[in-house]
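Reply to dn_fold:

You asked what the input looked like. This is it:
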Amino acid sequence: MNSVILISKFSPQALSFLKSTREKGISTIFVWIGSENEPKPSSSYIGEIYKFPAKNLYKQKGIDLILKIAERNKHSCIITTNDYISRWVYNCLDFKKLSCELLFSKNIKNINSKQKQNQAALDSGLNVLETFYINKDKDIYSNIPEKFFPLCLRPSDPGTILPGFKVKIIRNYKALESFVESFEKIDSFLIAQPFMDLPNMVVHGSRDMNGNIFGLESFIVKRKFEGLTLTISPFKIDSTIMSSCFKFVEKMDIYGPFHFEFLYETEKKNAWFLEINNRMGGTTAKVFSLGYDEPGYILRAMGMDVEIKRKISSQTASSKISLIKYLIYTLKHRLSPLDYPYNESLKNKIFFILKGLFCFKDDIFSLKDFKSIFSFYKTIVYEKLKR
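and this is what came back:
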């Protein structure tokens, strides 16, 4: 492959990818997905850029634009930061004719099945929490034993549920019934598992078409906000867990970047499998700021012989934007049990936030690229005003 075509919104993970390829001297064409009046992204790491109108996603006009760009840049590898976009592009383009390759697991539908993920985790020797698959059928969720409450609910496929949500804690059966009935549609199902007040652990890696796995590294998430990663640091785990991760990836035949998510019991050193995502994700930019070059390992998975020069530091990474929002929620007493650790004094929370703002690595901040920081803030302001 001579170059890379990145199809993505202007996001921290996209910026990390652009930084990594620029460091390695690899030509990257950025196909930026933006809405009509969204400010054009600016960064020292952006070279050739094309605007892809968000309204043309999953439409022929959108495919025509990608085809035009691919024809100009033959022998390129196409990568996206979204499973649905990858599947759409894969189904619409003739890659042999274009002499291009798409970084995409052909069996992504199976990989994204939470039921198949759980079974693969068990078969690979990973621990899995008791799991219930809920839809509108009351006969299914009315039989969940009381001992498993409170439950933590997540959508199996966000695009098949209206209205959408990320994660929800349900205290009892009555609350569960009310929550399920509030949905306009549940075309797939909701995943329900016992809620455990624990930190998360993330394992990143990448795999090529020949089955070689690159850069398998683990990180601990000691702080969560709205159920998502607020802070992340390098963390060594038992070799048996890493071995099981190897088995899982091989069993599911995953190609390209992936990251496992676990709940982790520090004292017992138990890891409880939650899910795996076959793409760059919300922690990609954070671990990149710590020196973990996930984009570099992705390039290796694409068959590029690149040198990984970055070294992982022992520091903590976060997002200043998320820390400020966390501060506002803390002062307004709007935090919930999803914001781990929840039962902590206000004084300790404020101290942590101040320390984070001044001492933690940031997922976008770079002294070499102030342009991107201002560009991100402009995009955030635009999104707020649009709502």
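The chain has a mean pLDDT of 93.
Hope that clears it up.
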